[in-house]
Amino acid sequence: MNQKIKQKIAFFILFLSICLVVIPIVLLVIFIGIKGLPAINWEFLTGLPKQGMRAGGIFPAIVGTVYLVIGAVLFSLPIGILSAIYLSEYAKENILTRLIRLAIINLSGVPSIVYGLFGLAFFVIFFNFGTSVLSGSLTLGIMILPIIITATQESLKSVPYAFREVSLSLGATKWQTIKNIVLPNALPGILTGTILGIARAAGETAPILFTVAAFYLPHLPKSIFDQVMALPYHLYVISTQIPGVPDRMRYGTALVLLVMVLSINLIAIILRYQLRKKKRW
Amino acid sequence: MKKLREFIIEKTIFLSGIASILFVLLIFLFLLLNGLSLFKTVNFKDFLLGENWSPVCEPPSFGILPLILGSLFVTLTAAIISIPIGIGSAIYIAEVAPLKIKEFLKAMVETLAAIPSIVLGFIGMVTLVPWIKRIFNLPTGLTALSGAILLSFMALPTIISITEDALYAVPKAYKEAAFAIGATHWQAIHRVILPAAYPGIFAAVMLGMGRVIGETMAVMMVTGNAPLIPKSLLVPVRTLTATIAAEMGETVAGSEHYFSLFAIGIILFIISFIINITAEFFLHRE
Question: What's the pTM?
Answer without folding.
Answer: 0.93
